[in-house]
Specification:
Blueprint lengths: L2 H30 L4 H21 L2 H19 L6 H24 L8 H11 L46 H7 L5 H12 L8 H7 L5 H15 L12 H31 L4 H27 L1 E3 L1 H4 L2 H11 L4 E6 L4 E3 H22 L3 H6 L6 E10 L2 E8 L6 H10 L5 H6 L2 H5 L22 H11 L3 E7 L3 E9 L4 E9 L2 E6 L3 E8 L3 E4 L2 E6 L2 E7 H4 L10 E9 L2 E7 L1 E9 L4 H4 L5 E6 L5 E5 L1 H17 L1
Parallel strand pairs: 2-4, 9-18, 13-15
Antiparallel strand pairs: 1-3, 4-5, 5-7, 6-7, 8-9, 8-16, 10-14, 11-12, 12-13, 14-15, 17-18
Helix pairs in contact: 1-2, 1-4, 2-3, 3-4, 3-5, 4-5, 10-11, 13-14, 14-19
């Protein structure tokens, strides 16, 4: 395959994948709003366009599946078939097969390794009227709100032809485009419009009437529809360019190196200014460094912004998954999503997708009850599942909340004891929240049996591990009988962060500033001991202490009388990190060392300081949890 054809193939795969993601969302919305003709037309055009591109490239199996799906969509548009869940389910299954064909094309360059006979038979059965069209299936579907608002939405819908402000001219109609482009005569279009006007509802689309009258060709209709869609889109959409992620990653890495160099130059410049304050060349250098600092910061922010994606890209797969899973489990679930325009770095978005899917599956499988059980408890038969994203400071917070059965603390205690994860004495000192979060320990599960939905008791541990890899945290809140909430806190980016640099026995550590509440100066006498565990009484709170010198086995000077305590937080839990000195607040570039220090607790990465030294970045979430566990163990002793 020559370079030109390879480029065409790559464009086809990229655009088709985006189209398939869009179709998943649109079909779920169509199921909730079956009378939306504009939405049906949009779906039909997308399927038709994908079929045409696949035909040009010779992917006949893909064309065959898409063509059958297109035939069903055409019947739906013509009103010859009702939009019911049974039909939607089979079309969604066809979309899954097309996704598999796309993956085959990407891997092997052909679509010959995916079986399509089964889905073809199902699609033909629908076309031939062999599938029942009951208004509602035996199992519940997921009602998804189609309306979008400024603050919350479920699945945003783009109707055919974007809404245009009154001050702007309306986009040309299909008939105008056909006449202006010389694809049809004015009389032919007027005759078709007249025929359409006298038809009963639902009326046949203008293009279909012209095709039936052989006034235009199918190719001419496609050309006119594409031009209409392009002219209806806002101008901003044309002012974009597609860039490979690896190029952005490369630019971000270069900016990271530039930031390290900038930090190094600033350190050198500061030292020179202290040693040669009156030297005019040193003053000129300082002014130049100040300008370099501003430009580097602006460049860094600009590059980071190009990598930001709305979190709706991550949320996009959830409505389809919730629909399919609720049907499989015979549950009724209403999904609501809020904050979909919240932006986060693409690298963070890539990592959070799988944990989010696992948590949503758990909420439906373990949390939300069967309709009969809900009614017996005085709840509506339809369960509520809300996924809300928001930006809080330099963090993204995702909340997954259900109104299901909640988690029985006694059941968690019994399972933790049975698996030897904690002792009875330790449980006696734990707060309600701490007991709940035992479910994130390896191998913990309260499921009575293993299924392909609930998994094998390793999922929640993997969720926490994957979130920690990107310097995030996850917490569980639950109330029996009322539901549960998972709170995920993520950094805006995992490339460059603000950090507090601290010193312990001449060793430097970086503490992510997003987790720092405050820093206080204390004396040795301020530190108290409870059952062998060091604590600090700070404003009516007993703060468990952790000494970095002990954590990382650094020889210490036992004669030191004064320390600093950096108060770090995970949710509403606090821990005091004891250090010798507070050095500075710096912008640091995170270098991943997970492969080398995976077994070292309390470390999430490394960076290089302005002095050129390698410094470990602390995992404050793990430090808080470890300190709390030690504190509880000491209280239980």
């Amino acid at each position: 395959m020559n370079d030109e054809m390879q480029e065409i193939l790559n464009d086809f795969l990229t655009e088709s994948n985006e189209m398939l993601e869009m179709l998943d969302q649109r079909f779920i919305t169509l199921e909730a709003d079956p009378g939306n003709k504009d939405l049906l037309n949009e779906i039909f055009r997308a399927m038709h366009s994908m079929k045409g591109s696949a035909g040009f490239l010779g992917f006949n199996r893909l064309v065959d599946v898409a063509h059958r799906g297109e035939n069903i969509l055409n019947k739906l548009r013509q009103g010859e078939m009702a939009v019911v869940p049974t039909v939607i389910s089979v079309i969604l299954e066809a979309i899954d097969v097309i996704k598999a064909l796309m993956a085959d094309i990407r891997e092997s360059g052909t679509d010959l390794h995916v079986a399509t006979d089964s889905i073809a038979a199902k699609l033909d059965a629908i076309i031939n009227g062999q599938v029942g069209e009951s208004a509602s299936p035996e199992v519940a579907s997921v009602p998804v709100q189609a309306q979008a608002s400024s603050s919350a939405s479920s699945i945003p819908v783009s109707a055919r032809g974007s809404t245009v402000a009154p001050s702007e001219p309306a986009p040309p109609t299909l008939g105008e485009i056909l006449v202006n482009e010389g694809l049809a005569s004015k009389d032919q279009v007027l005759d078709a419009l007249n025929a359409q006007q006298h038809q009963p509802e639902p009326k046949t689309p203008l293009g279909e009437i012209l095709l039936q009258a052989k006034a235009i060709t199918e190719r001419a209709l496609d050309q006119a529809l594409q031009k209409q869609e392009k002219q209806a889109k806002p101008a901003e959409e044309d002012a974009t360019i597609r860039v490979e992620t690896k190029r952005l990653d490369s630019v971000m890495n270069l900016v990271g190196e530039l930031v390290l160099g900038r930090n190094r130059l600033i350190k050198i410049g500061t030292q020179l200014e202290q040693d040669h304050e009156s030297d005019p060349q040193v003053r000129a250098l300082s002014e130049t460094l100040a300008q370099l600092n501003l430009v580097t910061t602006d460049l860094q922010l600009a590059v980071m912004k190009t990598r930001m994606l709305p979190i709706k890209k991550v949320f996009a797969k959830l409505p389809r998954m919730v629909r399919d899973l609720s049907q499989k489990l015979a549950k009724q679930v209403r999904l609501e999503m809020d904050g979909e325009e919240t932006e986060l770095d693409k690298s963070v978005a890539d990592e959070i997708g799988d944990p989010l899917v696992h948590l949503v599956r758990n909420a439906i499988d373990h949390g939300i009850e069967m309709p009969a059980e809900r009614q017996a408890r005085g709840k509506p038969s339809e369960g509520q599942l809300a996924i809300v994203a928001s930006q809080e400071g330099n963090s993204i917070v995702i909340r997954i909340k259900d109104d299901g059965r909640g988690i029985q603390v006694e059941k968690v205690k019994a399972k933790a004891l049975a698996k030897g994860l904690v002792s009875e004495a330790e449980l006696a000192t734990m707060e309600h929240r701490e007991i709940l979060n035992l479910i994130f320990l390896p191998g913990f599960s309260t499921a009575e049996q293993v299924t392909d939905v609930s998994g094998r008791g390793v999922g929640m541990d993997v969720v926490r591990t994957n979130i920690r890899k990107i310097n995030g945290s996850v917490e569980l809140e639950s109330e029996p009988g009322k539901g549960s909430q998972i709170v995920i806190k993520l950094p805006l980016t995992i490339a460059i962060i603000q950090a507090l640099m601290v010193e312990v026995e001449r060793s430097i550590f970086a503490i992510p500033l997003g987790s720092v509440i405050e820093a206080v100066r204390i004396t040795k006498s301020d530190i108290k001991t409870i059952n062998g565990r060091e604590v600090l009484h700070l404003r009516d709170r007993v703060l468990p202490l952790i000494r970095l010198a002990q954590e990382f086995e650094i020889p210490t000077d036992s004669d030191r009388e004064r320390f600093y305590v950096v108060v770090a937080a995970l949710g509403d839990r606090r821990v005091g990190v004891v250090v010798d000195e507070l050095r500075s607040q710096e912008e640091v570039v995170i270098k991943s060392i997970w492969d080398y220090l995976e077994t070292v607790k309390g470390v999430s990465g490394a960076t290089i300081t302005g002095e050129g030294k390698v410094v470990l970045i602390l995992d404050t979430a793990e430090l808080v949890q470890n300190a709390q566990a030690w504190h509880n163990a000491g209280m239980a002793a």
